[in-house]
Amino acid sequence: MPNRLRQCAIGLLLAGSLWSAMAQAAAATPPRSLQATLDAHLAAINARDLDALLATVTRGERLTLILPNGQVLDTREQFRALHVDWFAERDWRMRFEIRSLRELGDVGVALVKYESQALQADGSFQTRRNAWLSLVFAKEADGWRLVYDQNTVIPPATP
After folding, report:
1. Same-domain pairing of 100 and 48
2. Residue 102 is part of a domain; what is its CATH number?
3. Per-position pLDDT tens, the chain of length 159
4. 85 inside domain
5. Do 94 and 148 share a domain, yes or no?
6. pTM of the entire structure?
7. Which of 12, 15, 45, 142 yields a CA-CA distance of 20 to 30 A from 81?
């Protein structure tokens, strides 16, 4: 029996060492830059990839999202639920143009112009609206995370 206990103890020590090594390797991975986080965020939207999108937003409860119609959502869960429904729709695409990106200490601010396009019966896309995205990111323990997202519609030009 002592031999069996010794084998179990050695197995536990090896498993603990492996776990520790894996945790250190994960911790050694540098967090994404603000630019890389913004790029991943916008790419996740176009890919309708909810997991990738949520990997770019705060892990905290508070996340402000102001929709183009003025509706305000205040939580990460509301943000997630809205994107579940939106990503299920297949009749749209977004065109993004990053206009500016500023890192201000532990806060990053991005200004992104976007064109929301709707799929037409003939397979082409037509512009639904143009808008500005004001995105605010904050540094969290594991990197940059979205904490504020405001959509502002750009009114059509008058002739």
Report:
1. yes
2. 3.10.450.50
3. 566 655 544 544 444 444 444 445 444 566 789 999 999 999 999 999 999 999 999 999 999 999 999 999 999 999 999 999 999 999 999 999 999 999 999 999 999 999 999 999 999 999 999 999 999 999 999 999 999 999 999 998 877
4. yes
5. yes
6. 0.79
7. 142
Gap between the Cα atoms of 113 and 4, Å rounded: 66
Closest CA to 10 of 2, 87, 127: 2
Q: Are residues 108 and 144 in the same domain?
A: yes
Residues of the domain holding 57: 31-154
